[in-house]
């Protein structure tokens, strides 16, 4: 089409969709390479206005998802709710997996002679796995972007950890209440202090190595200790969860939290 240009009438007919198919194809091919002819095309002002309005609605006023809405209704600030709602997909998958694992542990506790061991082994580790998948490079696709925000670092880690602990503790407590030997509130929370101590230990170890690796090491040590205790002949590793041992778990948790606060202030 070298040397050929649209006339105002041809441009008007094309814009009004009155051109035949061959002419329309020629006009479209020519407009791709001819800026002067593109200026002959009448602009649809209403279409442009609607397009910009839709764009501003998406960019300037993004719609909140259900999780962000619930967090805002719970009293969290808008920026905190948005940050917590933007959790990694691995963490979201962990919530579903947790329900399946706890359901399997309950079935095993009711139908197998030593089925309660499955819950005893897994309940303290459930929050630990969630922490490993809720923060850090390699598990969060948006970690690079989040790391340069004002809420990055310790604050973001704390928020993500809390967002894991709350649903994990609720799910584990609900499952513990359905265990066959649960007769009191103590029977439903015997695992709580050990679980919190494991999470605190992984967060402290995560100051030197990747958080996922730290959680894996702490979880593996926990399972190894319980495995050795179970092999000693006890039906349930009572010694690790006995009331006397809870005092030591509390002391350990307090010490780990103190070290975490100290490291956070000196970082």
From TrEMBL:
Keywords: Membrane, Transmembrane, Transmembrane helix
Source superkingdom: Bacteria
Transmembrane domains' residue ranges: 90-111, 117-136, 157-182, 188-206, 213-233, 245-262
Protein name: Zinc-finger
